[in-house]
Amino acid sequence: MTAGGQGDVDPYQPDHGSTAFHVEHYDLDLTYRPHLNRLHGTATLRVRTLEDLTELALDLAGLTVEKVTLTGARLARYVHRADRLVLRLGGEVTAGTELTVVVRYGGNPAPISSPWGPVGWEELTDGVVVASQPTGAPSWFPCNDRPADKATYRTSITVDNPYRVLAHGALVSSKRRASATTWVYEEKRPTSTYLATVQIGQYEEHELVAEPVRQAVLVPTALRTAARDRLAHHGQLMTFFARIFGPYPFATYTLVITEDDLEIPLEAQGLSIFGANHLSSTDGDERLIPHELAHQWFGNSVSPSSWQHIWLSEGFACYAEWLWSEESGGRSADALASTWHRRLSRLDQDLVLADPGYRRIFDDRVYKRGALTVHALRGALGDEAFVAMVRGWTSRYAGGSVTTADFREHALEHATETGGTELAGEVQGLLEAWIDGAALPPLDGASGRGWLDALRR
Ligand SMILES: [Zn+2]
């Protein structure tokens, strides 16, 4: 807590975001010219202060601020430096004050460099992809860039014809004029900044499944057949996950396939982005497609409150791959767990899931050890209690943000309910070994076979 208004500093994002205020809503009114890579627009942020403040610092990188206005408090001046747009207030504003910040800005958006490569707004050969995890959101709009600061959005973006534009949320209008179309999307579910997105390309849309969750693919014409072949079983995948993880948390799900190859696929709110290369890779079906879909529950609906807790997203998404492998006739989750346990046992054992360190949040051991933790917990709880625990987790924290401590508490409650203090003690020891320790715990013969059959009944 500081009077300066930076709030508590998250060691996983020391130069990013603020806990001193909360953005309730982003209204983005943007125009983009693909051939010039020129973005221009106005962002209106509805803000509530959480502390007494004398300044308010937003994240915005690489774009030029033209004008800032503030209602609800007096703005003395603003400074835009080192990717921070700092509004100095004309006096102290008390906690709980509602403010409206309007920022007019523009320029040539570019990805932000991170230890894992460029993230955020990125030009494709013919269009744009926005994949912001973990710190790319300020490449296209001023924001409080913390995963826990979730907000609703209205995104209006005018782009030259014939480009197709997809943003997160529901399409509420598209007005076509002679040279450009204005697309308006509304996102009513709380959304982390890194999951806010815009996809621009010469795409056509195909519905894969209409009910109970609409699933569609946005794809360049040349990749249409390949995409439909690859995604023929997507409806089954969705149904299977909903049975184990609980109801799908958003209204629709769209897979975007870019014409370009992409290094990795990435999730955004209600959609995922894949490169053309992911359609032809044998990994696509078995691993990447279920992984990205699982993030809608783990990461997007139930979000990490800091990148420190990313194993709660990646561990579950990775475990979801193993579950789908078993369900779709591939290797069982148990067999995959044994394989990965063996591989991890040959790597350095110096990573702690509860606190991996910022530079290692995307270390593959976070993913695989996270999945093994889920598998070990399933073995201890038994399949029925495990599914109840997972469904309870996704419903209890739907639209919210979580820490490792929240998960521990939740799992222990289910252990107590299922097997009293004895099982709770066992689960507590198990979680301590897997989450807090660096040494790889043994993988005891975990799970009853045939549980997927039981779920189908
Ligand atoms: Zn992931």
From TrEMBL:
<feature type="binding site">
    <location>
        <position position="291"/>
    </location>
    <ligand>
        <name>Zn(2+)</name>
    </ligand>
</feature>
<feature type="active site" description="Proton donor">
    <location>
        <position position="367"/>
    </location>
</feature>
<feature type="active site" description="Proton acceptor">
    <location>
        <position position="292"/>
    </location>
</feature>
<dbReference type="Pfam" id="PF01433">
    <property type="entry name" value="Peptidase_M1"/>
</dbReference>
<keyword id="KW-0378">Hydrolase</keyword>
<dbReference type="GO" id="GO:0008237">
    <property type="term" value="F:metallopeptidase activity"/>
</dbReference>
<keyword id="KW-0482">Metalloprotease</keyword>
<dbReference type="InterPro" id="IPR045357">
    <property type="entry name" value="Aminopeptidase_N-like_N"/>
</dbReference>
<dbReference type="GO" id="GO:0016285">
    <property type="term" value="F:alanyl aminopeptidase activity"/>
</dbReference>
<comment type="similarity">
    <text>Belongs to the peptidase M1 family.</text>
</comment>
<protein>
    <recommendedName>
        <fullName>Aminopeptidase N</fullName>
        <ecNumber>3.4.11.2</ecNumber>
    </recommendedName>
</protein>
<keyword id="KW-0645">Protease</keyword>
<dbReference type="GO" id="GO:0008270">
    <property type="term" value="F:zinc ion binding"/>
</dbReference>
<dbReference type="InterPro" id="IPR027268">
    <property type="entry name" value="Peptidase_M4/M1_CTD_sf"/>
</dbReference>
<dbReference type="InterPro" id="IPR014782">
    <property type="entry name" value="Peptidase_M1_dom"/>
</dbReference>
<keyword id="KW-0963">Cytoplasm</keyword>
<keyword id="KW-0479">Metal-binding</keyword>
<feature type="domain" description="Aminopeptidase N-like N-terminal">
    <location>
        <begin position="24"/>
        <end position="195"/>
    </location>
</feature>
<dbReference type="InterPro" id="IPR034015">
    <property type="entry name" value="M1_LTA4H"/>
</dbReference>
<dbReference type="InterPro" id="IPR042097">
    <property type="entry name" value="Aminopeptidase_N-like_N_sf"/>
</dbReference>
<dbReference type="InterPro" id="IPR001930">
    <property type="entry name" value="Peptidase_M1"/>
</dbReference>
<feature type="binding site">
    <location>
        <position position="295"/>
    </location>
    <ligand>
        <name>Zn(2+)</name>
    </ligand>
</feature>
<feature type="domain" description="Peptidase M1 membrane alanine aminopeptidase">
    <location>
        <begin position="235"/>
        <end position="417"/>
    </location>
</feature>
<dbReference type="Pfam" id="PF17900">
    <property type="entry name" value="Peptidase_M1_N"/>
</dbReference>
<dbReference type="GO" id="GO:0006508">
    <property type="term" value="P:proteolysis"/>
</dbReference>
<dbReference type="GO" id="GO:0005737">
    <property type="term" value="C:cytoplasm"/>
</dbReference>
<feature type="binding site">
    <location>
        <position position="314"/>
    </location>
    <ligand>
        <name>Zn(2+)</name>
    </ligand>
</feature>
<keyword id="KW-0862">Zinc</keyword>
